[in-house]
Design a protein that fits this description.
The protein has 282 residues and is an alpha/beta fold. It contains eight helices and nine strands. The protein has helices at 7-10, 16-25, 37-54, 78-81, 104-119, 172-186, 228-232, 276-281; strands at residues 124-128, 134-138, 145-149, 152-157, 190-195, 198-202, 214-223, 242-248, 266-270.
Length: 282
């Protein structure tokens, strides 16, 4: 049977409200049933009070149709109202005893130890515990260790500083070589130099090297501006081995400056005014 007959049709003594409740309890669609067993019980108690207030007595009998469940369905919400066991509070963690502050002799000893180890290139902090064991802390390379007492630094140990070489001060000879090269290039000549054992040629317009160098050869050609005064200013160059003078303004009246070039071994003199008198003055 698709739909049972109303309970009131089977027993006219049942009230319409009770018949409607029974019909809801027998509904095939769960949506048509009471939402919970508690709701059904509440409705029955309400009907019971209504009957008691009306006639003063309950009906002689109630015929329950076949298929009506005699036992209430389990309440799916029963567990929600059940009291839950109280959660256990986490046990209190006792604070660890504070470590005593470093004493001054210990600070001094630790600083001395750090200084010795740092001198070896590696900083290692070694702490002796109360039980006699040793705790070793290896400091990363390049780091600095600071030991404090009372909130103030008592010792600081850092990486060993590598002394930087002092800037090289040009020697007097270097100044002389630099002045001679600058003068000769300005007059259109050329200069052979040696820098850290590497030879090179400087021509007019070339910049002078920033580092020290030695003049090893001088060349002046077809320049009447190069005079006896310019030649005299080249005296004392310690590394000049070759000197070429051709068609310049040098008169040859004073060639003694050539004797101040200790390493000169190759001298070239060209020009219409050069004669035996030049050789005699050498």
């Amino acid at each position: 049977m698709d739909h049972p007959a109303p309970a009131r049709a089977l027993n006219p003594q049942i009230s319409q409200e009770l018949s409607d409740l029974i019909e809801k309890l027998l509904a095939k669609d769960p949506a048509g049933r009471p939402s919970s067993a508690q709701e059904a019980v509440t409705t029955l108690r309400t009907l019971e009070r209504q009957v008691g207030l009306g006639s003063g007595s309950m009906p002689a009998g109630v015929f329950v149709p076949v298929g009506l469940p005699l036992h209430p369905e389990p309440n799916p919400w029963a567990e929600i109202n059940e009291p839950t066991a109280p959660e256990e509070e986490p046990a209190a963690v006792e604070p660890s005893p504070r470590r005593s502050r470093f004493r001054w002799p210990l600070v001094v000893g630790l600083a001395a130890l750090l200084a010795v180890v740092a001198a070896a290139g590696v900083i290692v902090v070694k702490i002796t515990n109360k039980d006699g064991t040793t705790t070793e802390i290896r400091v990363p390379e390049g780091a600095t260790v600071t030991v404090e007492k009372g909130g103030k630094p008592a010792a600081v140990v850092g990486p060993e500083k590598v002394p930087q070489p002092a800037p090289k001060v040009p020697e007097a000879s270097d100044d002389a070589d630099r002045r001679a090269a600058a003068m000769l290039l300005k007059l259109g000549g050329s200069v052979n130099i040696s820098q850290d054992g590497k030879p090179s040629l400087l021509k007019p317009g070339d910049p002078l090297p920033a580092e020290a160098f030695e003049v090893t050869a001088l060349h002046v050609y077809y320049n009447k501006e190069f005079s006896d005064e310019h030649l005299a200013s080249l005296g004392g160059l310690k590394h000049v081995g070759a000197f070429a003078i051709a068609h310049t303004g040098v008169t040859g009246k004073d060639l003694k400056v050539l004797h101040t070039l200790p390493k000169l071994w190759n001298l070239s003199l060209l020009g219409p005014s050069i004669d035996d008198a030049w050789l005699e003055r050498l």
